[in-house]
Inverse folding.
């Protein structure tokens, strides 16, 4: 008997915690259970071939809104070429309307509803040991021999400590994100989220959490991403984890957590301010700053309190902050969203993620869609098309805004340029929206672009923009600065090149002076001048790009970019204004 658990991830860097947890819980059948991971970007013919080569007796898929279309196509064809293979579906996309999913997907045989570990173990017993019957397995919906669709009683929630730690060998996860959970459930009732359905929160024990974290730290993994819905909903649990990580920091691993900012207190912040720079990344859901919207989606949050905490964390200077917004929520029209965007942008997060509302199966907003006038796609990903407050055309424009925010802000490509431009524009939203409109008008949305092309496009936008073109000389220097602040490039677009200064000999002398290296790049003091020249770059600018308050004063300014040392928050090379 061969059971194949399959994940179709959104990206290659992602890994599936779900299928690993299922196999680990059913450890006594591990010789019969195999895992395979693919991505939605791979050709379905390739995935089908790989599954066929395995010839599983039982085939399981972990189903989400981003992969359900691919999985529906796959299982239909798997059933044609492997008609005797039992196909099991699980995951949030199939758990809440399981009977309907089986009716629509004739090739599926069984659906695991909700948490899958114990249910999958009992199904493994049934298929491998030929014990029991499907009607005695709680938490499934299945098709019996007559073709009738049967649902068994809901499965009771498992004790988390009974679920083994899923990682013992991470050799196959190099350069991929490692996901980890210490809790299940959520104390909140956000109407767009499935976590609100399960009442109460369950936690791993302190002993278990510390043991798990020790594994990650001892193995020097690059990043651990907690999937806990509200990491800090229990103060003692959160502080225990933060303190253990800080006390055992290996100087390499960082930890990403989703937190609720407005429940943070001074004791938590006092602990976190002593963390190594870059050790923690916090993702904070804002979603909207419109009070009517917040009330409708049942988020009991205070934006004023959130602002206070986000600013305090920002001032500490050691934690990356990632703030989220959702477009398409009730009572949020285009102008209201403009305000929400500007409110959050003013907090200067390292990343501002703009998402679009998806009406997930089982969520409160899906149930109340008609009440709020929300029209959404009928098939996964169930994204909002329009609402009674915001039109489809306005949502399309916000997609351009989102693309520009990702391309130029969240990527870190043009942060210094954007900071200057936003100071000229009426609001940040207006700048990103104008840039997005230009991007579409010029057809840039139809093709992919290299990094250098992106800088050239930004400069072209500036030169053709009535608000900015008078400042194009300064912005050109800032764009060139952002280019070198990102990568040690050898060539840049002709339009962005600086004056033809012959400084080669002067640069060589600078690198030979040990006092200069000790002052500006002490981490390179043991390297030869020739080696340092390959690790650094000196560029002279027509304006003082280092001084945002006096940038409009034309003044030759030399900047040293040290590519051998990265800032722990931005992951960008450090740079210094030098006497040259």
């Amino acid at each position: 008997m061969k059971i194949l658990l399959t994940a179709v991830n959104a990206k290659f860097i992602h890994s599936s915690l779900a299928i690993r947890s299922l196999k680990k819980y059913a450890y006594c059948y591990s010789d019969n259970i195999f895992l395979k991971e693919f991505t939605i970007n791979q050709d379905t013919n390739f995935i089908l071939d790989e599954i066929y080569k395995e010839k599983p007796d039982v085939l399981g898929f972990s189903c989400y809104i981003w992969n359900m279309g691919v999985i529906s196509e796959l299982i239909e064809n798997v059933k044609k070429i492997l008609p005797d293979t039992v196909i099991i579906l699980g995951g949030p996309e199939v758990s809440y309307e399981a009977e309907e999913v089986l009716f629509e997907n004739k090739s599926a045989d069984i659906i695991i509803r909700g948490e899958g570990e114990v249910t999958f173990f009992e199904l493994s017993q049934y298929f491998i040991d030929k014990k029991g019957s499907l009607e005695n397995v709680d938490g499934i919906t299945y098709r019996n021999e007559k073709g009738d669709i049967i649902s068994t009683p809901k499965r009771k929630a498992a004790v988390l400590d009974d679920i083994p730690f899923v990682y013992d060998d991470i050799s196959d996860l190099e350069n991929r994100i490692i996901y980890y959970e210490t809790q299940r459930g959520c104390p909140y009732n956000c109407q767009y989220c499935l976590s609100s359905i399960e009442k109460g929160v369950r936690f791993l024990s302190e002993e278990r959490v510390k043991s798990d974290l020790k594994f990650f730290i001892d193995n020097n993994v690059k990043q651990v991403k907690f999937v806990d819905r509200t990491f800090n909903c229990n103060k003692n649990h959160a502080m225990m984890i933060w303190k253990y990580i800080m006390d055992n920091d290996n100087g390499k691993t960082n930890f990403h957590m989703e937190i609720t900012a407005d429940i943070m207190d001074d004791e938590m912040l006092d602990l976190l301010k002593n963390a190594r720079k870059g050790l923690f990344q916090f993702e904070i859901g804002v979603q909207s700053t419109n009070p009517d919207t917040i009330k409708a989606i049942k988020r009991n949050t205070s934006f004023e309190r959130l602002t206070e905490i986000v600013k305090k964390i920002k001032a500490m200077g050691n934690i990356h902050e990632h703030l989220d917004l959702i477009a398409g929520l009730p009572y949020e029209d285009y102008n209201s969203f403009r305000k929400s965007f500007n409110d959050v942008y003013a907090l200067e997060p390292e990343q501002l993620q703009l998402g679009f509302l998806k009406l997930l199966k089982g969520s409160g907003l899906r149930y109340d869609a008609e009440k709020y006038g929300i029209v959404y796609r009928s098939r996964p990903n169930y994204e909002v098309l329009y609402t009674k407050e915001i039109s489809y055309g306005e949502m399309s424009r916000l997609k351009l805004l989102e693309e520009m925010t990702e391309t130029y802000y969240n990527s870190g490509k043009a942060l210094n340029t954007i900071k200057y431009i936003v100071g000229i524009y009426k609001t940040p939203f207006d700048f990103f929206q104008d840039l997005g409109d230009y991007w579409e008008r010029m057809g840039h949305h139809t093709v992919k672009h290299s990094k250098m092309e992106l800088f050239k496009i930004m400069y072209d936008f500036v030169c053709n923009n009535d608000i900015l073109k008078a400042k194009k000389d300064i912005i050109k220097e800032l764009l060139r600065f952002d280019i070198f602040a990102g990568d040690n490039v050898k060539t840049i677009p002709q339009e962005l090149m600086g004056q033809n200064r012959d400084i080669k000999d002067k640069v060589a002398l600078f690198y030979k002076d040990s006092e200069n290296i000790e002052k500006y790049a002490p981490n390179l003091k043991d390297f030869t001048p020739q080696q340092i020249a390959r690790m650094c770059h000196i560029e002279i600018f027509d304006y003082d790009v280092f001084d945002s308050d006096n940038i409009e004063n034309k003044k030759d300014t030399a900047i040293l970019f040290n590519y051998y040392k990265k800032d722990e928050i931005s992951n960008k090379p450090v740079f210094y204004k030098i006497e040259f």
In short: The two ends are 72 Å apart (CA to CA). The first strand starts at residue 3 and ends at 9. The mean pLDDT is 96. Residues 499-578 form one domain.
